[in-house]
Amino acid sequence: MQNSELRKKKIIVAATGASGMPILQECLQMIRQEPAYESVLIMSRSAVLTMEHELDCTKEEIEKLADQVYSPEETGAGPASGSYRTAGMLIVPCSMKTVAGICGGYADNLILRAADVTIKEQRSLVLAARETPLSPIHLRNMYELSRMPGVRIIPPMLTFYQKPECIQDMIHHIAAKLVEPFGIEAEGYRRWEGI
């Protein structure tokens, strides 16, 4: 086998300072279960603060779910370059500050730079945009991003057609939707099959 055949597909997974850290954790676990994929994690300082509030685990425990970890300050790291090969990028949760930074091309940290690179290379960029209610500014920024090739905005919205029995079922369903654009079919993901 050639080295390129052995190479795993990298998904950059970033987390920013919005609610939804259990979904991040579930996405990282789903990627870890897929032998053809690996995750590259970048967590903002605000994400770490939110994670400590929402999860019963440490930053180090979340980082162990990833194959590689970078800090947002490492602006010279691999994900800052288009020559760093990836299947794309997932930002979960994605704050409106991050949405605004991506929309405006304001790449002042590794998360925003990696998103900027993902867009310019026309790779998949999935944003678990997290805010409620949404202001006209939020909607305008998301509208502009939605028109770009490869950008998908998948807000972590509750669904009930899969008959969830607990919150974990809902988290699993949303996480499965978030990793699907990268070619990952999560175990137990229940698609709509009609009435």
Describe this structure in words.
- The chain is α/β, with parallel strands linked by helices and 195 residues long.
- The protein has a single domain (8-182), classed as Flavin prenyltransferase-like (Rossmann fold), CATH 3.40.50.
- It has helices at 3-6, 21-32, 45-54, 59-63, 96-104, 110-120, 136-146, 167-179; strands spanning 9-15, 37-43, 68-70, 88-94, 124-129, 151-153.
- Helix 2 links the parallel strand 1 (9-15) and strand 2.
- Helix 2 (21-32) crosses helix 8 (167-179) and helix 5 (96-104) crosses helix 7 (136-146).
- It is globular.
- The chain starts with a helix and ends in a 16-residue tail after the last helix.
- 41% of the residues are buried.
Assess the beta-strand content as a share of residues. Answer: 15-25%
Residue windows where pLDDT falls under 50 for at least 5 positions:
none
What number of domains? 1
Structural class of the helices, strands and pairings? alpha/beta
**What is the third-level CATH name, the topology?**
Rossmann fold
Major sheet strand order:
3-2-1-4-5-6
Superfamily at the CATH H level?
A: Flavin prenyltransferase-like
- What is the 3D shape? globular
Radius of gyration: 16 Å
| N-end to C-end Cα span | 46 Å
Residue share in helix: 25-40%
Summarize the structure.
The chain is α/β, with parallel strands linked by helices and 195 residues long.
Give the SSE map.
Blueprint: H1 3-6, E1 9-15, H2 21-32, E2 37-43, H3 45-54, H4 59-63, E3 68-70, E4 88-94, H5 96-104, H6 110-120, E5 124-129, H7 136-146, E6 151-153, H8 167-179
Parallel strand pairs: 1-2, 1-4, 2-3, 4-5, 5-6
Helix pairs in contact: 2-8, 5-7
